[in-house]
Design a protein that fits this description.
alpha+beta, Sulfate adenylyltransferase, about 20% helix
Length: about 120
């Protein structure tokens, strides 16, 4: 989680409904295997609720990170075993995108809301 909790976030570039859309990723979130999503923009506000198949997840943290700063632990947040597995998945989804370690992404961490 970010140490800079009082950092002002930029305006959202997309809606929370677009944060997790790939069916395999939706299942990972529902199964508790994915607790964060990295995007090139901000897709949610802190505390905003994401609904996947009727289950609610609260956005707990949003912060910037470079691809080069990611570790295996960050890859596990994304639902992958290793950083290399995560990297290959991203490159397969975005065929023309180069992997640039200095590229910044926005990390959205979330947790299930228990009812």
């Amino acid at each position: 989680m970010s140490e800079e909790s009082n950092v002002v976030l930029p305006e959202k570039t997309c809606s929370i409904e677009r944060l997790v859309t790939i069916p395999k990723d939706v299942q990972k979130v529902l199964n508790g295997e994915k607790t964060a999503t990295r995007r090139n923009g901000v897709y949610a506000d802190l505390g905003e609720i994401m609904v996947l198949e009727g289950k609610e997840f609260k956005v707990d943290a949003i912060y910037s990170q470079t691809l080069g700063d990611m570790t295996d632990e960050h890859a596990r947040q994304e639902g992958y075993t290793t950083m290399e597995e995560y990297k290959q998945s991203i490159l397969a989804m975005h065929a023309k995108m180069p992997w640039i370690p200095s590229m910044s992404v926005w990390v959205h961490e979330y947790s299930p809301i228990e009812k």
